[in-house]
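job 3f2a | input accepted
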Amino acid sequence: MGNSRSWGRPERTALAGDVPADDAAGVAVHDVADAVDSSLRRLAPDDRVVVAFSGGVDSSVLLDAVVRCRPRERVVAWYVHHGLQPQADAWRTHCEHEAARLGVRFGATHLAAAPRSGNLEAWARRMRYRALWNAVAETDSRALLTAHHADDQLETVLMRLARGSGPAALGAMAPAQRRPGGWLLRPLLSIGRERIVECARERGLAWIDDPMNADTDFLRVALRTRVIPQLAKAAPALRENVLRSAEWLRDSGEALRELAGRDLREAGIEPGTGAIDRRPLAALPAARRDLAVRAWFDSLGVPAARVLPSGSRRCCSAARRTRCSSTMGCAFAAIAIGSASRRRGTRCSPRRHPRPSPSAGAARARSRCRSGEAHCAGRSRSGPMRSRRDGSRRSRSKSAQCAAGSECGHVRLARA
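job 3f2a | predicted structure (416 res):
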């Protein structure tokens, strides 16, 4: 990371209440104001909003526009102190002064120390959103506004494409989403970075530049500084075309989610249940089974990519990767959440199995299990493990056999 910070200070700094007349405002100012006003129409006039305010040029333009579209007493600027840069305290002070200049309330959250290992960018994003949604609840607001713009959207699509994401993820960020805590609005998502900077200069705003935005160790920054400029030379309409494709993919992803939810309901699987009987899904085409099981993981708040192999088209056959160690014919699957490896040697245990939602498949399985337990009648006792020649592990004990054998369709999610 860099160890310096620069301040973007135009020659003239706007004073509180110094709002240019409409006929004096530039094109960029009009574009930003129209986009923000259109986004805020989803809310009632007296609804309070929280603006994610980092002090950068994007959030500075957003906050300035929101104040001109909304009563100032209904606007809260919120700064998240990540503790990743030595200048963070000065940035907080800058944001507080800007909020006071605009006449809006200001709040800040100081995050705990960052982890020493792992994905720092993902940690910062996760903790930032947690802090912002807490601010929405604390201030009794109805919406959270972020300053993501068209270039951010382009970078997000390319990042997810590089990581092998599916259609829903390639749809990237939505302009407006209903979340449990309120609306998540991104009013600037159709506006490019160059237009935002132009607006900031026309408005005479002061902003800060985070040196992490120039650190090419981060994939987003590398795409922004190295890859996208070269692609744009070969395809001048790159941004517009990618954003249009992202919108189509977002619509397709929503339709696929609805289809997967319907398939789960018809199979008698309730969202959020800890276990499923995969046999009612067997009649579906492979692609729809894939979607249904991924939707099940989503309902549990677990990214399917953590527990299902990349590129798999047989998600509901996950049991073949995590067979019960007592018999390779049992369809029991124990999938460890948060673990990099699939847990082999996991034993069928009726005492530990959550009971799935009632379904025809479940009824059939109950009738097959000799011990009377649903789906799996293997005992929880296990013997010592030993390695096979192929690297897998099995138990020496013969007492943990699943009574249903290969006909058992129980799939269980084990939280590690």
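job 3f2a | Residues 15 and 101 are 7 Å apart (CA to CA).
job 3f2a | closed
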